[in-house]
Design a protein that fits this description.
Number of strands: 11
Order of helices and strands: HHEEEEEHEEEEEEHHH
Protein name: DUF3068 domain-containing protein
Strand order of the largest sheet: 5-4-3-2-1-11-10-9-8-7-6
Keywords: Membrane, Transmembrane, Transmembrane helix
Number of helices: 6
Organism: Knoellia aerolata DSM 18566
Distance between the termini: 62 Å
Pfam family, one: PorA
Largest sheet: 11 strands, antiparallel
Length: about 325
């Protein structure tokens, strides 16, 4: 029984080492997240500056996704929030003219690497993307990654710039630095675009836990039309870190499972072998001790054990069998 248990545990360890990580380290198909940002902006369409807030709602399209690729739809809304009581978004008929920008985006990514997938069966006629879009890969490396920029319509470098704690949680810091790039800065209007984006990423899952951004859009004549400085709200950062801790615990258990199951399996196999070997040897000793059975040399023990056997009693004067035959 112990040897059977040991075999099961060894098999479990091998599965946990080879198969389970690949099956578990995938972007979920039920993703439905809200990311909120706050900050300040100036040179807005109405002129002047104002506190602003943004909402980004990302949801996975489970029907279009499969085991390898996940399809996302993202809605982003940036509005003025002068009194701190604006809703998440307003439309362009808002009487207070609080809407700055509102956009939608559809894209697909590899569930393991996070890299864009542009197959039409996933995104249809949506705009192709490059590089990473909304997260980093599982088991993030300390290197430069290509990251999608929707204003430039191409990937830009997200450079690793060290490790940093966010609310006590270890993260990798990545920075995107775009300077005065020619771009369509708003609905057919050309100009230059600058963006300094700092992302704090969970090393195990690749999720972006915190983000800050300073963005500037300038017309060709030098007029600034948007000067934006904003980042994730404290509530969003806290929620992201809580989720990262839960995911880290699950993935950490999976990472330790091969070692735990392997050690228990080896111990079970060893214990089972010693018990089996001990029982076998005990059976063997019993065979040799039985005078009615043959020993390892094939001779009957009875022939040796009865040569001087006194069959007539304990009296010393009683002759042995050989003496009786000799008389």
């Amino acid at each position: 029984m112990l040897m059977g248990l040991g075999g099961f545990l060894i098999t479990t360890a091998l599965l946990a080492l080879i198969y389970i990580p690949g099956a578990v380290k995938k972007t979920p198909l039920d993703t439905d997240t809200y990311t909120r940002l706050t900050g300040n902006a100036s040179a807005l369409p109405s002129g002047g500056g104002s506190p602003v807030k943004a909402l980004s709602h990302t949801v996975a399209d489970g029907q279009k996704s499969d085991g390898d690729v996940v399809v996302f739809d993202t809605f982003t809304c940036l509005i003025k929030d002068p009194n701190g009581d604006s809703p998440d978004c307003v439309d362009d008929t808002d009487p207070d003219r609080r809407l700055v920008t509102a956009t939608t985006d559809r894209f697909a990514t590899d569930r393991r690497t996070g890299l864009s997938v542009n197959d039409e069966k996933y995104i249809g006629d949506a705009q192709p993307h490059e590089g990473l879009v909304n997260k980093f890969p599982f088991d993030v490396e300390k290197k430069t990654y290509p990251f999608w920029d929707g204003i430039l319509d191409r990937a830009v470098d997200a450079t690793f710039e060290g490790e940093e704690k966010v609310d006590g949680w270890d993260t990798y810091k990545f920075v995107i630095d775009v300077n005065d790039e020619p771009a369509e800065i708003s609905n057919g209007i050309q100009g230059t675009y600058s963006d300094l984006k700092t992302m704090f990423v969970d090393p195990r899952t690749g999720s972006i836990l915190k983000q800050t951004e300073q963005q500037e859009r300038v017309l060709e004549n030098g007029t600034t039309v948007l000067d934006l400085d904003f980042g994730f709200t404290d509530e969003t950062v806290k929620g992201n870190i809580d989720t990262a801790k839960d995911n880290d615990s699950r993935l950490g258990l999976i990472g330790r499972l091969p070692l735990i199951a392997g050690l228990l399996g080896l111990l079970s196999l060893a214990a089972g072998f010693f018990l089996w070997n001990g029982a076998r040897r005990a059976d063997g000793d019993g065979d040799y001790a039985d005078p009615g059975r043959r020993g390892p040399d094939g001779d009957a023990h009875a022939a040796d054990d009865t040569r001087n056997l006194d069959v007539f009693g304990d009296d010393e004067a009683t002759p042995s069998r050989s003496d009786v035959r000799g008389r």
